[in-house]
Amino acid sequence: MSGAPEGHADTGAEQNHSDDERLLFEPLSHEEILNCAFSSWYPRFRRVTIKSEIIKPLERDFVDYLLADGVVLPEHEDRQYRGEIEVVGGSGSEWSEWSDDGEDGDGDGDGDAEASDVRRLAQSPGVKRTCAEIRRRIEALGGEVFLRMGWSAPADASWITSTGTLKCRGVPDICSLLKGSNAIARDLAAGRYGVQPSGAEPELVLRRWANLTPSMLFRCFVRFTRLVAISQVDYQHYAFLAGMADEITAKLTRFFADHVAAQFPSQSYCFDAYIAAAGRDQVFVVDFEPWAHSVDTYLFSWRELAADAAEFLGLRLFPEYASGLAYYSSRYAASRCPAEVTDDALRGSVAAAIERMKSEHQGAQ
Amino acid sequence: MTDAIDVKKLTPLSMEAMANQATINIGTIGHVAHGKSTLVKALSGVTTTRFRDELERNITIKLGYANAKIYKCDNEECPRPGCFASYESSKEVAFACTRPGCSGTMRLVRHVSFVDCPGHDLLMATMLSGAAIMDAALLLVAANESCPQPQTSEHLAAVETMKLENIIILQNKVDLISEERALDNHSQIQAFIKGTIAEKSPIIPISAQLKFNVEAVAEYIYRSIPVPVRDFSAASRLIVIRSFDVNKPGYEVDQLKGGVPGGSILQGVIRVGEDVEIRPGYIELDADGKYIARPYRTRVVELMAERNQLQFAVPGGLIGMGTLLDPTLCRGDRLVGSVLGAVGTLPKVLIDIKINYFLLRRLLGVASEGKKQAKISKLAKNEELQLTIGSSAVGARVAGVKDKEAKLVLSRPTCAEPGESIALSRRFERNWRLIGWAKIVSARSIRLDSD
Hints:
The complex is a heterodimer. By secondary structure, chain A is an alpha+beta fold.
């Protein structure tokens, strides 16, 4: 059973390998982080990005509202559906007993401090003013928007909206996305890159809704002001991309040279670019990220990107032999389930509770 | 040709099914870096480049599953465990035994799908709803570390929740340690599994890296995992976990390829050429400000399991599907969380539900510094909760509370039926936290043409 240990390149050494990778990075400067805040780069890239509205500074009440435990919306939509509504299960009369009595407040709650906190904040003047501002800006952008804050979009909470996407038409969708997203909560509380840069202020960004095709989104890596690599972002093989590889590389290289290199103040960073449909020869920048370990490198590894050799690594596409179905992204699923099943540390204690609760519940039926 | 398939005679071991797709799902669990991915690589031959570090990132994209075929030599004289072998999913169903001097034929005996567990999105949600997606689990324990490591016990607990009784324990990395230490570690494992669901599980020493004893793993999968009992004649039901638009932007409509949903079949059989429905389907505002909810109806034009083309698909592994759907509807994983199945057989699309619920007294887990976890207050009118229904998540506003009953308005139409169990979560300290359980008593639903 004693064997040659040198074969363990990616089992025993797996962890170490990852730790080593962190050593490739200098600590991020506050300036580099701030450069990637939406409001820092948008004014310079207005002509080559999606039209957006920035609400900054945000009212203190609104930020406190986002940080408070529990979710109560400042307003909710009275949603009407087309078509016949029928009652299923139970008896039809049960539903009339439940007619909303309009009473608002803690219901039969026991005055729980957090719950009333978020309830109070949801109706605070600052939140009301912000909601009015949000409505004005949505209108200015044509009625349909997607949203983000300074560093992240609440993509992990898209399950919460009326359409199941990031498309928002009003305050209810926007507030539930912001309050339901783990990414937004992390950015506000701890900072997207683990630090809150001095001088950073929370900002809310509304962008005109665009039906983007994920296959045409690419992450470009810039090291010491030179474009070193381009990666496909969506984990799926798109047969048509291979034939377009040269064209994609040429477009993005030219876009970098013409619009980004002289405009973006950091030395090393990443940017996401979207190539619009054929015929409309246009490239948009969608986002900027610093050169940091916690930034997703998609089909490259940081080890490759940070290698000293200065050559251009080119465009990398998702290979044909791999199935997109086999890959999944916890990025978009982070808030789809309670922490009890996503967080290893909680799983141990949850199993027994789930069993207990299920049996109690079954017993009561 | 698909008409010839008699679903009543089909089993997970039918060659027509097993030749092209996995029919048994096996979760792989164990502490980080204990060798899960190396083992799956050794068994499935999946030569995926690990594109980049999968570990220790907040944002990770992981290889979620891989399929493997298990073979057994038909020569009775061929000694075990060498008479077993495992290969990639695209391998032919029979070939000459590779053991020198053996005249036997290696024949396909199992086709399994390894699912990275319990981190997989699909599993996380179904853990709460108790759906049985996994048929067995492989628990990896590194022999060169003390047992248990934190995730070893946590993952085993997760498996207990899923009521998985068929567990095979693999004592990995035995090549790195002396025989004495291996025996020591073996006793630690035995002590650890005592009193757990894995108490009677076999413990197999292996080295996934050196492919030492992986034939024994193949043998145990064959011998000790019971063939799952499936009802192939039930109405088909698939949970969508990804969906794609594979077209080049700007193409003419007549050149477009239909949308490509993919996911896991829970029950029944889906055939090429069959008409299927996807719920809740299309949800949009019309000009009058009213929401339209309309299921998608389409035809299955292609079925794929990894790179194998299928004429029909049964539960097991992940199935990709070519359809005639408008591809933009599938763009960017838009159908995730939907259910797909035979027309007219899917649950209703609900907009409000009345539930009978139970709340935990406190949040689960141990708070830091020995403090007790926060108390869970009663449901309050107008608060927004997260519901886990089947494999999907949806928001819900509490519209009324009476004793153990509450009325909830769903944030979007959701496919479910009265009697179904749901998990309730509330936002607490920057996470959704499980606060209780409920059962749908009754609901208001949108009547659809196919209901």
